[in-house]
From TrEMBL:
One of its GO terms (biological process) is response to molecule of fungal origin. Belongs to the iron/ascorbate-dependent oxidoreductase family. This is 2-oxoglutarate (2OG) and Fe(II)-dependent oxygenase superfamily protein. The lineage of its organism: Eukaryota, Viridiplantae, Streptophyta, Embryophyta, Tracheophyta. InterPro entries: DIOX_N (IPR026992), IPNS-like_FE2OG_OXY (IPR044861), IPNS-like_sf (IPR027443), Oxoglu/Fe-dep_dioxygenase_dom (IPR005123), Plant_2OG-oxidoreductases (IPR050295). It comes from Forsythia ovata. It comes from the Eukaryota.
């Protein structure tokens, strides 16, 4: 029997998982990226990106291997804007536990997940894209969006109680990432021959910075050539940590105007520079534009954690990185996340608003 497409209202109010459960073999109009006359424009067969792997334990070593690793870090972040972190201090078992608990959450009955549901004007909680305009193309994904820090912005009513270990395991992960975030901001500064704290100073204290966790669930999609899991964007953060699915690829990065697939490395954590570190580095380090493609036969689960300077912090290019050959590229900005969303909604690349 042919399954007809949902009406416009239906497709707006549903999670992607609900659409998939209905067994549609087409994607609703609101999810379609229109291409040329043949329609499909999205290719999952992009070439593989050689994302450098960085051994974090070497980054503090004064040995030749340590110096080499720092160079590799700098070169990774100024070319593709990301690297695969190894020796990050988290066990395989722990990373599997995180992945498992995310899968368990999205596998709960819809009714239970909707207890944590987001609303039209608030992205926090469970659900899919907030619909902000008639023309917006929606992402083929359901998310659980949680503010972890600052402490007074945390809203536990959105934190799943099921699986029972959810809160505790997530808190533990974030605690470990906070240490890594500081460690990486320091290493990145050293890799550019700057004093260790110069990026960290702009980032500010952990008490005022915001940390957002986004559990992304990508259901199978009947038309991967038409819909995207996440449309092209760069992150508004200073640093983003992505725990990818252990088996299913999907992330692509734009480099030299071409899309490249990011490989799955099961127990590495993918670290990428966000717009705010690109600004601090006066454009030397690149906040990569990336997107997620969908897949017709396998679901995909990822966990992105964003480290964002407090909204009162002034973010601007470090003086030492401004010179005659490299004039100042960016203004000093405050509350970049607001600038980001205003521009994102207008369909512009947000960081351009900070350019001089
Ligand atoms: C994001 C993101 C990539 C992925 O959440 O900002 O880019 O593979 N996610 O889920
Ligand atoms: Ni992203």
């Amino acid at each position: 029997m042919a399954v007809t497409l949902p009406t416009k209202m239906e497709s707006l109010s549903k999670t992607v998982q609900e659409l998939v459960m209905k067994g549609y073999n087409e994607v609703p109009e609101r999810y379609v990226h229109k291409g040329g006359s043949s329609g499909g424009i999205i290719s999952a067969s992009a070439p593989l990106l050689d994302v450098p792997s960085i051994d974090l334990s070497l980054l503090i070593s004064p040995s030749p291997a340590g110096v080499e690793e720092l160079k590799k870090l700098q070169s990774a972040l100024s070319s593709c804007g990301c690297f695969q972190a190894t020796n990050h201090g988290m066990s395989n078992m722990f990373l599997d536990k995180l992945r498992e608990m995310s899968k368990e959450f999205f596998a709960l009955p819809m009714e239970e997940k909707k207890k944590y549901g987001n609303t039209a004007d608030d992205i926090e909680g469970y659900g899919n894209d907030s619909v902000l305009s008639e023309h917006q193309i929606l992402d083929w994904t359901d998310r659980l969006y949680l503010t972890i820090s600052p402490e007074d912005k945390k809203r536990l009513k959105f934190w799943p109680e099921n699986p029972p270990s959810f809160r505790e395991v997530l808190e533990e992960y974030i605690m470990k990432l906070k240490t890594l975030n500081e460690f990486i901001l320091k290493a990145v500064a050293r890799s550019l021959n700057l004093t260790e704290n110069c990026f960290l100073q702009q980032y500010g204290e952990n008490e005022s910075a915001s940390v957002i966790a986004r559990f992304n669930f990508y259901p199978t999609c009947p038309r991967p050539d038409l819909a995207l899991g996440v449309k092209p964007h760069a992150d508004a953060s200073a640093i983003t940590f992505l725990l990818q699915d252990k088996e299913v690829e999907g992330l692509q990065v734009l480099k030299d105007d071409l899309w490249f697939r990011v490989p799955v490395v099961p127990y590495s954590i993918l670290v990428n520079v966000g717009d705010q570190v690109e600004i601090m580095s006066n454009g030397i380090l690149k906040s990569p534009v990336h997107r997620v493609v969908t897949n017709s036969n396998r679901e995909r689960n990822t966990l992105a954690v964003f480290f964002i300077p407090g909204s009162e912090m002034e973010i601007g290019p470090v003086e030492k990185l401004i010179n005659q050959e490299r004039p100042r590229m960016y203004k000093t900005v405050k509350d970049y996340v607001s600038i980001y969303f205003q521009n994102y909604q207008l369909g512009k690349r947000p960081i351009d608003a900070a350019k001089i």
